[in-house]
Design a protein that fits this description.
With 236 residues, the protein is an alpha/beta fold. Helices cover 38% and strands 27% of the residues. It has eight helices and nine strands. The strands form two sheets. A six-stranded mixed beta sheet has the order 5-6-7-3-8-9, with helices on both faces. Strands 2-1-4 form a three-stranded antiparallel beta sheet, covered by helices on one side. The protein is globular and about 50 Å long. It starts with a strand and ends with a helix.
Length: 236
């Protein structure tokens, strides 16, 4: 089942309306799509376009179903200075209109998973970057949406945090959720993603699973990194 379909003719800002162009991608139930590209390739701009955060957008973004059925986990934590971790969760639950008992169960389970139970009444502003990133992951997982849109989730996470994140993300996929994930960590992406969308200079230069990417690059045994490097050379 297709949960997210994106067709962007061009998008950007008032001073530059073509930051990204000709971007087509889709995410199916249970699928993890890796959005790959160098700095400035247009990955984060693509995600902003999907979230409706750009002033200029010529294209179409379709989520399956009705209402808020996606979670966005940004690259940089967005936190309120005067709210504790638990108050952040309660605020999110109120926005999502979650039933109290469902919220309490999920919140406590996620706090335990990411080892933040003991600091749930502390201010996240005092946390390390990795702990703040875990707060964003917890907020993203709280709703249990149909689609997760995740921008560079591994930044700041230690190996244990990365393992916990991937384990819970896999559980969500087993239940039918789809994931679009932007990342620079190509060795991890190669292991966990079902297929890839490779971007450069604001547009898609290749798409498909690893076998299809290898074919496009004419590297039958190439790693994702080697294919990525070859595509960048070809696009110069």
């Amino acid at each position: 089942m297709e949960l997210l379909k994106v067709t962007i003719n061009h998008a950007g800002y008032s001073g530059n309306t073509d930051v990204i162009k000709k971007v087509d991608l889709s995410v199916k139930s249970g699928e993890l799509i890796g959005l790959i590209g160098p700095n400035g390739a247009g990955k984060s701009t693509t995600i902003k376009a999907i979230m409706g955060l750009l002033p200029v957008m010529d294209g179409k973004v379709e989520f399956a179903g009705e209402g808020r059925n996606y979670s966005y986990i940004p690259e940089q934590p967005v936190l309120y200075e005067r709210l504790t971790l638990w108050e952040h969760l309660e605020l999110a639950a109120a926005v999502y209109e979650m039933e109290r008992n469902v919220f309490l169960s999920r919140a406590e389970d996620l706090l335990k998973l990411f080892h933040l139970s003991e600091v749930k009444h502390h201010l996240p502003g005092t946390f390390s970057k990795g702990m703040q990133q875990k707060v964003m992951l917890i907020l993203g997982f709280l709703l249990e949406p149909a689609v997760y849109v995740v921008d560079e989730p591994f930044l700041g996470l230690d190996p244990r945090g990365t393992k916990d994140f991937l384990s819970h993300l896999n559980q969500a996929r087993v239940k039918g959720a789809g994931v679009l994930m932007s990342t620079h960590v190509l060795d991890t992406a190669e292991k966990i993603c079902d297929s890839f969308v490779l971007m450069n200079a604001g547009t898609v230069v290749a798409a498909g699973n690893l076998m299809e990417i290898r074919k496009q690059c004419q590297l039958p045994e190439g790693s994702l990194f080697e294919c990525f490097d070859q595509l960048l050379e070809n696009s110069k």
